[in-house]
Please model this.
Amino acid sequence: MDRTAEQARQLDTLAVTPPPASPFAAFGIPGLPSLPSQPPPPEPRPILELQGEEYENELDSLTDWVDGYLMPAYGAEVTTAAPWCDQWQEHEGVVAWLHALWMALQQHKDPEAGLSGMFVWHRDFLTHAMVAVRAPGGPLSACMTDPDRPAHRLLHSPPPSVRPSDTGVAKPEAAGDPVEATE
Model:
């Protein structure tokens, strides 16, 4: 009983006493000089915001990951329900989706993500991105739908939106801007 009471007093003391300023203060050793601070790593940016060599380098790294890891592991079969394109790098929307998926993987495989990091990546990112990229009506729908018949075709984006004027009649052009012919 006496030992338990003494341990309780020690625990109470430890809980109330703040730790020393230096981890070495209790030993009479002065604190070590601090290491020079390193600048934080650059903030990740979406690939479509990059330009020139920076874009090309990021696209090369992304291509290595997509061709060497993503598609062999998660690509499944090419079908009309899950099209693919050997020239996916030319589809801006696909590049954006796959780059975001790759950045999410890098975050979730980091030790700070914990043991469930990869599960979260699979559940919240992989499935959603692959469905969006390979949807039957998605950005690759005009490309390869049969592995024996490679195909690539870029679909046209919607035209710019038309803003209504004050009179309720649509204005196809801003003042002074020429009107371009549409197909």
